[in-house]
């Protein structure tokens, strides 16, 4: 994971606004989150950090096509360099476990929640903070996403742990793997690395 002091590029809000101006369907906040993720995925491809949108977002071809057709119809004309060809590929071994964890706590049974589980799991493999990896403006948007789509999981993050740390703690706890230096978070020397004071 990269240092929290590392300078991160600001989201491309103009590109995102052009996506949101397309006549898509869906909840405005969900479209905002998906547009943020789509912009950083396009940037990954353009900067050769991912082979295709599928690989950057963790979505198979049929899922990505439905997302684009439903939420951003007209993207092909707006972003002619973007291709729908490609494959999500295999992520790290923990990606499947994280995706399953998210889906177990899904608040909705619709496609959007499934898409977001795939996207969050894949983007969690990126260095740095997850909210930045998703292209969001601030951490509170990630917390809102979690509360909206994975409420019972979000409710377990009662001490405002950083989301990636929280996910890995959940996964390791399931396997009985101790990952912390102290049994009590407040006594741990890594407390500041795991928790934030505000959203």
Task: Walk me through the structure.
The chain has 199 residues and is an all-alpha fold. The protein has 12 helices and no strands. It has helices at 13-20, 28-46, 53-57, 61-71, 75-78, 93-104, 111-123, 130-133, 139-149, 151-154, 163-175, 191-194. It starts with 12 loop residues before the first helix and ends in a 5-residue tail after the last helix.
Short description:
The chain is mostly helical and 199 residues long.
Number of helices: 12
What value does the average pLDDT take? Answer: 86
Helix content: 40-55%
What is the succession of H and E elements?
HHHHHHHHHHHH
DSSP strand content: under 5%
- Biggest sheet record: none
Distance between the termini: 20 Å
Name the shape in a single word.
globular
In total, the number of strands is: 0
Structural class: mainly alpha
């Amino acid at each position: 994971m990269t240092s929290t002091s590392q300078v991160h590029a600001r989201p491309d809000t103009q590109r995102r606004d052009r996506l949101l101006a397309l006549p898509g369907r869906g909840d405005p906040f969900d479209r905002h989150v998906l547009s943020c993720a789509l912009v950083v995925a396009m940037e990954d491809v353009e900067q050769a950090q991912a082979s295709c949108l599928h690989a950057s977002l963790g979505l198979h071809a049929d899922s990505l096509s439905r997302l684009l057709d439903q939420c951003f119809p007209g993207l092909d004309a707006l972003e002619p360099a973007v291709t729908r060809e490609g494959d999500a590929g295999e992520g790290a071994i923990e990606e499947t476990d994280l995706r399953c964890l998210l889906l177990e706590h899904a608040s909705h049974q619709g496609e959007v929640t499934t898409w977001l589980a795939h996207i969050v799991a894949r983007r969690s493999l990126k260095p740095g903070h997850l909210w930045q990896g998703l292209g969001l403006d601030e951490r509170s948007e990630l917390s809102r996403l979690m509360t909206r789509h994975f409420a019972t999981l979000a409710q377990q993050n009662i001490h405002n742990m950083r989301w990636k740390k929280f996910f890995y703690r959940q996964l390791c706890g399931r396997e009985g793997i101790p990952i912390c230096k102290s049994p009590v978070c407040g006594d741990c020397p890594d407390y500041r690395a795991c928790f934030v004071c505000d959203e």
